[in-house]
Amino acid sequence: QVQLVESGGGLVQPGGSLTLSCAGSGSDLSIYPMTWYRQAPGKQRELVVTYTRSGQTLYSEAVKGRFAATRDYAKNTLYLQMNNLKPEDTAIYSCSVDQWWGQGTQVTVSS
Questions:
Q1: Which pLDDT belongs to residue 95?
Q2: Are 111 and 41 in contact (CB under 8 A)?
Q3: Tens-digit pLDDT profile for residues 17-51
Q4: Alpha-carbon span 2 to 26, nearest angstrom
Q5: How confident is the prediction for the chain on average, in pLDDT?
Q6: pLDDT(99) > 90
Q7: DSSP conformation letters of 29-98
Q8: pLDDT for position 1
Q9: CA–CA separation, 102 vs 9, rounded Å?
Q10: Residue 34 buriedness (CB in 10 A; 0-12 / 13-18 / 19+)
């Protein structure tokens, strides 16, 4: 049974930074892509970034140039460095691997 646990969310001012973590356990996740999603209140869930098996990072246009995903295969962990945060980045951020999902972590960008 795979478990994914996100952490690192919080309240930050516009222009600030946060780093999210998605720690996986229960299986070797290196054979899977790992993906960050987010869902803002009243909006559909949207893909933020996919970290592929080959090490490519595929970002949404909304975050390209501001967010950076890295992956520690030994720790089964995906990170998301978020810089120059904007109020529209406010959402619950969740990670997904294959059919498994974490519970999400809240990011709020507000002055």
A1: 97
A2: no
A3: 999 999 999 888 889 999 999 999 999 999 999 99
A4: 5
A5: 96
A6: yes
A7: GGGS-EEEEEE-TTS--EEEEEE-TTS-EEE-TTTTTTEEEEEETTTTEEEEEE-S--GGG-EEEEEEET
A8: 85
A9: 13
A10: buried
